[in-house]
Amino acid sequence: MPVRLLAALPLLFAALLLGQGRAPSRTSRSRADGGPILLGTDPPGRLRPAPASDAGMAQADAGPDEVHRELQALRARVDALEQERARSQETSQQLQEISSELQQLRQQVADGDAQRQAAETEQREHHADVDSAVSVLYSARQRLESGNASIDAELNQAQAAFSGQARRDLQAARAALQNKDLSTARTLLSAAISDAQAGR
């Protein structure tokens, strides 16, 4: 009997060692299965709100974002500039028309001034010619009074300067001279002088 016990002792001792070696694994399993495992940093009962879902993001992006607003502002600015350019072009065209009309008016004024000056010069020259012809007729009348009827040169000069009634008086005086009527010729020369000085 004691020999059997002695023989069984090593078996019991080995079983005991095996049992002790497995006990910690059961303990660790029990320890691992004994309670909930906490993950993350939030304590129990204070969970953070879940992030917005894709549907929420799509709903948030449904309105105009910053880029869209900038594009709308740029389009509005372009439209405003286009309208301003159109108004400027219209104003520029009107200014060109006004400038062209003003230039034409200035040219007309310049032409009118030139014509006026030419007319005034011609009138002064005509008055000078008339005054010279009147002086010649005074001399011709005096020669007629002395009986000298050779006044054709004087009559030609006066006839070139006179017009209207004064010229007709000279023509009548020339006819009287051809008829040797010196008295009538003198009277007609006086009438021609008077009409010429009066501008008739």
Structure explained in plain terms:
This protein has about 200 residues and is an all-alpha fold. The protein has helices at about 1-35, 55-60, 65-145, 150-160, 165-180, 180-195. It has a domain at about 70-195. It is rod-shaped and about 205 Å long.
How many helical stretches? 6
- E-strand count: 0
Main sheet properties? none
* Silhouette: rod-shaped
Structural class: mainly alpha
The separation of the N and C termini measures: 191 Å
The arrangement of helices and strands along the chain is: HHHHHH
Tell me the fraction of residues in β-strands, as a range. under 5%
* Rounded average pLDDT: 77
Helix content: over 70%
**In oligomeric terms, what are we looking at?**
single chain
How large is the radius of gyration?
Answer: 68 Å
Low-confidence stretches: 23-32
List keywords for this structure.
200 residues
Blueprint of the fold:
Layout: H1 2-33, H2 54-60, H3 66-145, H4 152-161, H5 165-178, H6 182-197
Helix pairs in contact: 3-4, 3-6, 4-5, 5-6
A few lines on this structure:
With 200 residues, the protein is mainly α. The protein contains 6 helices and no strands.
